[in-house]
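From the pipeline queue, job 12 of 40. The input is one protein chain; the requested action is below.

Action: predict structure.
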Amino acid sequence: MRVPARRVAIVAAVIAVAACGPAEPPSSATATPAPTSGASTATALPSPPLDPPITLDEPPRANLLAGNGGPVAGDLGSYVIGEKGSDSPWLPGEPVTVPADSRMTIRLEQGIAIGPWQARMTEASDAEGLNALPFGSGAGDISLTAPRAGAWTLAVTLEFAGFDGEATYYWRVSVEEP
């Protein structure tokens, strides 16, 4: 996932040169009809400035929501963003209690979209995650069904859509009896 600094510099130079070229209207632009006699012409208002782009210097918080409980931020494990990162062992996870058979959704803060992801789960007593099994995978929004009643550790490794980075988050999931 790492992009060499030279490649980033080349892409930045190409973008800068392209920005100096002649502006052309977008293909979806429509022509304004010529005013008829006696009609007034309106002056176009300037577009509002674009929001500043989001940059990632560190992983955003990942929140798990289930049942009627509020969001619970996961414990951040290993991650890589651009040229920096951190390696972590399997973590016990941030405690969260969820109802049996409930949907568990995971969202990133700062409006960051989720790219490809994979979830693994093991019994909470497995402190090193040696028996962790796949619990789901996909790309985009994460929605999982809670496992059977018990104490579990959920680990979700995901990529940040549109950014050079990925991270693993952990939760200690206590599933209530139905």
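Job complete. The chain has a mean pLDDT of 79.
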